[in-house]
Structures are given as structure tokens and as C-alpha cells.
Amino acid sequence: MSDVKYGEILEPEEEAERAERVRSRFWRTFRRAARAIPFAEDLVAAYYCALDPAVPARVRGVLLAALAYFILPFDAIPDMIAGLGFTDDATILLATIGMVRAHITEVHREAARRALDDAPAGKPAR
């Protein structure tokens, strides 16, 4: 993957649009899926990693693509199907988090813990 140039994965304009879409819809989708996601802290840490400008662009691009898939209501298995809806999302997210785990730092994890711990009534801080 070190041979891949930035523009071959995600153009700067596409990354900005995808980042804004993820930023605006992540928490709403996360609250709906939280009880089905056993790796919630990793997911929120990945969210913070994806929005961190210090993270390499290709890593942010991959994370933003996986998070965009997570927030879209219609995908391989529609999220509205009880019990199954988030299984494809979870698979994509776990695989992506595993691929970029080295870039998810303790700063991202601490931000995730704060967002999950300090959130009033299931509404994580942004």
C-alpha cells in the first residue's frame, strides 16, 4: 500500500465531502447500532482517527470509506433488518480497524473513552 499515491484512493474533494458526511451522521447511526457493536470504543477511536489531520491521508481515506458505509442505511444488508442489519457494517469496520490499528493512537482511544463515558443519556460528545 506504500506504493499507492493519495489521489488513487480518494481525491481531496471527495475526502472532504466524505468526512463531512461521516461527521454529520456518525453519532446518530452509532446510537442506533451501539447495542449490536461489541467493539464500540474501537469504532469511536477509528472515527476520531479518521478526522485527525495528522494521520496519513490514505489511512483517513480508508477509515472514512468504512465509516461512510456504516452510516449509509442501505448497503449489502439493510440496517433496518433487526438482528442482521449491522453485521455487514461490523465486518467492514472490524477489518478496516484491523488494517489501520497502528494509526489509532492512545489520543484517539482517550477521546473515544471520554465521548462514551461523558455522554449524557447515550448522546456521545462530538
Detail the topology: elements first, then pairings:
Elements: H1 6-9, H2 12-33, H3 40-50, H4 57-71, H5 87-100, H6 106-117
Question: Can you characterise this structure?
Answer:
The chain is mainly alpha-helical and 126 residues long. The chain has one domain. Helices cover 62% and strands 0% of the residues. It has 6 helices and no strands. The protein has helices at residues 6-9, 12-33, 40-50, 57-71, 87-100, 106-117. Residues 4-9 have low confidence and may be disordered.
* Succession of helices and strands: HHHHHH
Radius of gyration: 14 Å
Q: What is the molecular shape?
A: globular
Determine the number of helices (DSSP H or I, runs of at least 4 residues): 6
Strand content: under 5%
**SS class:** mainly alpha
Keywords:
single chain; 6 helices; mainly alpha; 126 residues
What would a concise description of this structure say?
With 126 residues, the protein is mainly alpha-helical. It is 62% helix and 0% strand.
